[in-house]
Amino acid sequence: MALPPYSSLAPAPLADTWASHPGRYTRESTPPELPRVQAIDVVRGVVMVIMALDHIREFWSPMTMRAEDVAHASAALFFTRWVTHFCAPTFVFLSGVSIWLSARKYLFRAQTSRFLLSRGLWLVAVEVVVISLVLQWQYNLILLEVIWAIGGSMVLLAALIWLPRGVLALLALVILAGHDALPVIQPVTAGNAGWALLHNPPFVLPIAGLPPLLVAYSVGPWLGVMLAGYVLGPWFVLPLPERNRRLRWAGLLALGLFTALRATNWYGDPMPWSAQPRGLGYSIMSFLNVTKYPPSLLFLCLTLGGALLLLSVTEQAAGRPARWARTFGQVPFFYFVAHLMLISGAAWLWTRVAFGQAINFSFASVEEWPAAYLPSLLRAYMVWALVVLALYWPCRWYGIYKRRHRHWWLSYL
């Protein structure tokens, strides 16, 4: 089913939203669907496809050294991991943009607040109940990763949206620029876990009577990213030339700030770069090797700067690659859960056949690896291509289903 080009669909004027026709809808009605912004769907689809590569690498081709270890990792391994750094920040930022765009169809701000609260709690529940089970079979853990960070940020944003936009912009700036100055909480205990959930590198917290809690994503910095997207949401209803100009300059400013701060090693990342004895290429890798957990200021300047530039050139993108990316970007939650199920389930089957037992390489230590296992980036890329291809038709079907139906529960999936 061919879709009309999004460039032919101008954003709905604010005067023609649900809020301007309160008598047309009942409380049980689903608010009207506003025209989508193609750039958001395309860029979100691109980063979600790239995201699958990182998850596949963990399940299908772990290495004995860390991909970020520029003293030992190959350039191929480093950049296979590095390019996936753009995924989480872009995804969270666009979640903030989408929240602002979606809020235009509600009659009262309280409706947006209630939806954010319920949607955020739903995402946290999915992370704890579904994604934890899908990812860590053979191990007994409760995982808090990117979906938890998005859900937790939505819960906080449900309260914050009552503040003026200028205050939200200042808060986003303070979080993004200032959280690197906060001390790391060590060790994490039940008494200080609340603060650690807001700002800390990954940690494990034992819980009496429950599996240990593995927190990979602290909420605080990601709330700043979502707030930044929410504050910049109005840019996406501006005339296209003005929108693209603002996005382009914002992206260049972020990349310029990254370059200036990184070159001096003054502030913005806990891991300074240095010249590498392996040569210039590895020195460049060291320069680009910024910290994701929690995302440093320089990590966010680099990744969001690139995302803003990409958003400035994709609204009128045509051709098959743009249509494919848009297909995935229109159903992000469906794609996310489906790709983890497919990757994890296929890895369980592969290891059973190849090694006689199921091995969860994503969590297994090197000592637990079968003697016959050989790491292979080529295998990871081949599986990546097959996974993305296999998910295209289910995502296409679900995208069509969502456009043809107005069930309230579709907004949660």
Describe this protein's structure:
The protein has helices spanning 38-60, 75-82, 87-103, 109-135, 146-160, 165-178, 193-198, 219-232, 240-264, 280-288, 297-311, 320-329, 332-355, 377-404, and strands at 142-144, 203-207, 210-215. The chain is mainly alpha-helical. It has one domain (39-412). Helix 4 runs antiparallel to helix 5. The longest helix is centred in the C-terminal third of the chain and has 28 residues, at 377-404. It is globular.
Query: What is the number of beta strands?
Result: 3
> Runs with pLDDT <50, length 5+?
1-29
Q: Which word captures the global form?
A: globular
Derived from helix and strand composition plus strand pairing, the structural class reads: mainly alpha
Give the tally of structural domains: 1
Task: Give a quick rundown of the structure.
The protein is mostly helical and 413 residues long.
What are the defining features of this structure?
57% helix, 413 residues, 14 helices, mainly alpha, single chain
List the helices and strands and how they pair.
Blueprint: H1 38-60, H2 75-82, H3 87-103, H4 109-135, E1 142-144, H5 146-160, H6 165-178, H7 193-198, E2 203-207, E3 210-215, H8 219-232, H9 240-264, H10 280-288, H11 297-311, H12 320-329, H13 332-355, H14 377-404
Helix pairs in contact: 1-3, 1-12, 1-13, 1-14, 2-10, 3-8, 3-11, 4-5, 5-8, 6-8, 9-11, 13-14
